[in-house]
Amino acid sequence: MMTALPASGRAWHLVARPHGWPEPGDVALRDVPVTEPGEGRILVRNRYFSVDPYMRGRMNDVKSYVAPFELDRPMDGGAIGEVIASRAEGFAVGDHVLHGLGWREYAEFPADKAVKVDPSVAPLSAYLGVLGTTGLTAYAGLFESASFKEGDTVFVSGAAGAVGSQVGQFARLKGASRVIGSAGSDEKVKLLLEEYGFDAAFNYKSGPVRDLLKEAAPDGIDVYFDNVGGEHLEAAISSLNLHGRITVCGMIAQYNSTEPTPAPRNLALVIGKRLRIQGMLVSDHLGLQPRFVKDVAGWLASGELKYNETVVEGIENGFDAFLGVLRGDNTGKMIVSLGD
Known about the structure:
alpha/beta, globular, 26% strand
C-alpha cells in the first residue's frame, strides 16, 4: 500500500571531523530526497532517535568496534518510527519499528534491518532506552561481564545516566547488599537516592572521588560498573575488595580529550587484589535479549523499576541534544522527538 510520500526530509550530516569538542560547524542539517521503498524494503517516518556518547568516537576517522561516520553522509543510530510505505512481507503501513537509521526524518532500508515493537507494552521511546540497547547494556554488563552475585556491593559511575540508572536498580532488584552511585549534580544525587533506591550516592564534583567513594563504601566494593574512566576508575580500584570485578562500559571523561589522559596510577593493585577488568560491548550479549525483556518488562509492570528520559523536541535540536549528553545534561536516556 502506498500513500502520497513527502519529496524530501532532513538529515544530520557530518561535514568535518571534530578536534576535541564537536562544534556546530562539524555538522549540517540538510534536505535529502525521500524515495519509495524497493522490493523487500520499507520506508519509515522516524518518531524518535537516540543520541549516545559512543557516537563521539564515530566522528573520528579511526578503526574501532563500529565504523566511523562518513563525511557528507547522514549519521546514524538507534531510532523508532512508523512504516509509511512497505514492499516487504510482514510489514504493514502503521507498524512501529526499531532500526538503526536515526539522525533523520525518513529512512528507507531493507525490512530485515527492522524489529517490530509494540506501543501497548511500553511507550515507543522506551524501546530506545530501558527496553532497548541501553537497558540490555546495563543488564549484560552487570550480570554477565561483572558476574554479579547476591550480596555484592556495587558502585556505578555516571549513575543518573541511561545505563547507570538501570545498573543500580538491577543490582538492587537482584539482591545487592549496597548500591552506590556517582553523578554530576546534587539534583541527580537526590534522584539516585529517592527515586532509584540507591543506598548511597555522591556528587563527584564536590571532592576527590577516592575520598567520596571510601566514605560511601567503608567496607569496600565488589563490583564497579564504569561509564566514566579516569579518576573514577582509579578510585574504584582503590576501593575494590579481593576478587573484585570491573565492567568497563564507557569512558566519557576522555572522549573529547586531545591529549593522552593519565591512566589510573594504582593499576598494580590489580595484582594483589586479583581484580578482573572486563571491557564490554552490548553486541556480544544479544543472546540475553529474551531473558532481559522478560525480567525488565516484569519490573516495569510492577513499578519496581523506574526510568527517566530527557526528551529534546525537533530534529533541528538534535546536535544540541548530542552535545548535552557529552556534557551530562541528561537525566536518564537522551532522546530526540520528531513529533507525532
